[in-house]
Specification:
Helix content is 48%, strand content 13%. The chain is of the alpha/beta class. The protein has two domains: 232 residues, 3-Deoxy-D-manno-octulosonic-acid transferase, N-terminal domain (Rossmann fold, 3-Layer(aba) Sandwich), CATH 3.40.50.11720; 208 residues, Rossmann fold (3-Layer(aba) Sandwich). Strands 3-2-1-4-5-6-7 form a seven-stranded parallel sheet, with helices on both faces. 45% of the residues are buried.
Length: 457
């Protein structure tokens, strides 16, 4: 072990009590963080024999391990997993996560014989116990998750470890270069890296990664849930006004939206004087704005917080969890459910992309495009820069400088049926033209594990 990784290992070992305390605190608002905490330290209650695949039913005789740290990575993993199961019928999945939302979403992907546990904390001991326990045929890290001891442990045991759907923005590259004695061996120790874009590939090579292909973003291969999409569109057809969604909003963005909405977007009812307008209830102004607003926060632990923010502003709110045959009449609809983005995008005429109005790098716009929902982007899209630029060039998205301009642009687009229909068609076409990454990635995985699997059975 080189001196820098030895120091890193000492620090991560010493930080274990802090991690336990953090998990206890997070579990107060998100109970999932309190589940199976011992797994994070490489300790598992089930006997090894009960977890190991049986060669008679599994083509490799060992787990295919996919690590998807959070919600977005888990959704990308679902797309890759479908392609892998098609190529390796009967394969057994080992699925790991770092966040409670990722783990909850990942449960939907499990089949009989699959195993789901937490990602091991990156100490040599926890990593060694994890790898001894499961002995995967291959490890597939999704998008950005490269951990020095995990990479070193896999290399020591001859387990190929790859980074799929890989992305690395300029800020992350600078951070990695500042920690080059630690980061460079970790990236160089990966068996293969398959990047989303050529720009990502260049940055990954700059930190020592073996880039073996540029396959595009797996999320272009997403197939929206047909039932959800149809339900959303049915509700949209019966809505009194065009629907605009603030999609996957992050902390602070709802307050930004509220300020812009009330101060700059609302217009007085016919015959209302400016002086009377100042005393008008926010709900009246909401009705006068011409569109129905739908807010879908990114993180479930913030659903109640956003609800209270809207209530304090004097707006009436209808929460998805209380909908029966459809949304109730209210100034704002609040999407307080997980796994229903296709329904929300089907319901919306236009979506404003969360994470792009605060300096957070933006959320993924591809699912919106796949659902035929045009997008308004804020100035901060560094997490998905190429996809955002391509979407704007294709007419599937429009970029604005701030929240106020976003609210105005979304209103313009939603209230012009011809303009909205054209943008919707462009969004669908943009999504379909960039598919194919899942199949390419699955084939690349097979090229690594197939020699091992050829003798299985």
């Amino acid at each position: 072990m080189n001196p820098v990784r030895a120091l890193y290992s000492f620090v991560t070992w010493g930080a274990q009590p802090l991690l336990r305390r953090k998990l206890r605190r997070r579990a107060q608002s998100e109970p999932g963080y309190g589940h199976a905490v011992s797994e994070r330290f490489g300790r598992y209650p089930a006997p090894i024999d009960s977890l190991m695949p049986h060669s008679s039913s599994d083509p490799l005789g060992r787990f295919v391990w996919i690590h998807a740290v959070s919600l977005g990575e888990t959704r990308a993993a679902a797309i890759l997993l479908a392609a892998l199961r098609a190529q390796l019928p009967g394969m057994r999945l080992l699925l790991t996560h770092g966040t409670a939302t990722g783990r909850a979403e990942g449960e939907k992907l499990l089949q009989p014989g699959d195993v789901q546990v937490w990602q091991p904390w990156d100490t040599p001991g926890a990593v060694a116990r994890f790898l001894r326990k499961f002995r995967p045929a291959i490890g597939i890290l999704m998008e950005t998750e490269v951990w020095p001891n995990l990479v070193a442990g896999c290399r020591r045991r001859g387990i190929p470890l790859v980074l799929a759907n890989a992305r690395l923005n300029a800020r992350s590259l600078r951070n990695a270069q500042r920690l080059a004695p630690l980061a460079r061996p970790a990236f160089a120790g990966l068996t293969a890296v398959w990047a989303q874009t050529e720009a990502d590939a260049d940055r990954l090579r700059a930190i020592g990664a073996k880039v073996r292909g540029v396959f595009g973003n797996l999320k272009f291969d997403v197939v929206p849930d047909a039932a959800q999409l149809a339900q959303g569109r049915a509700w949209r057809d019966h809505a009194a006004r065009p629907v605009v969604m603030l999609a996957s909003s992050r902390e602070g963005e709802e307050a930004m939206w509220l300020e812009s909405f009330l101060q700059k977007t609302a217009v007085p009812l016919a015959g209302t004087s400016q002086s009377a307008m100042k005393n008008e209830a926010p709900a009246t102004l909401a009705m006068a704005s011409g569109v129905q607003w739908l807010i879908v926060p990114r993180h479930p632990q913030r659903f109640d917080e956003v609800h209270q923010l809207l209530i304090r502003a004097g707006l009436t709110v209808s929460r998805r969890s209380a909908w029966g045959a459809g949304p109730d009449a209210a100034d704002v609809w609040l999407g307080d459910s997980l796994g229903e983005m296709a329904l929300y995008y089907g319901l919306a005429h236009v979506a404003m992309l969360g994470g792009s109005f605060a300096a957070l790098g933006g959320q993924n716009l591809i699912e919106a495009a796949a659902c035929g929902c045009p997008v308004v982007l804020g100035p901060h899209t560094f997490n998905f820069l190429e996809a955002a630029e391509l979407a704007c060039a294709a007419g599937a998205a429009r970029r604005v400088p701030d929240m106020a301009a976003g609210v105005a642009q979304a209103n313009i687009l939603a209230l012009d049926p011809a303009l909205q229909a054209s943008a919707s068609q462009r969004a669908s076409r943009f999504a379909s033209e960039h598919r194919g990454g899942a199949s390419a990635t699955a084939q690349a995985v097979l090229a690594i594990v197939q020699p091992a699997g050829a003798g299985a059975g």
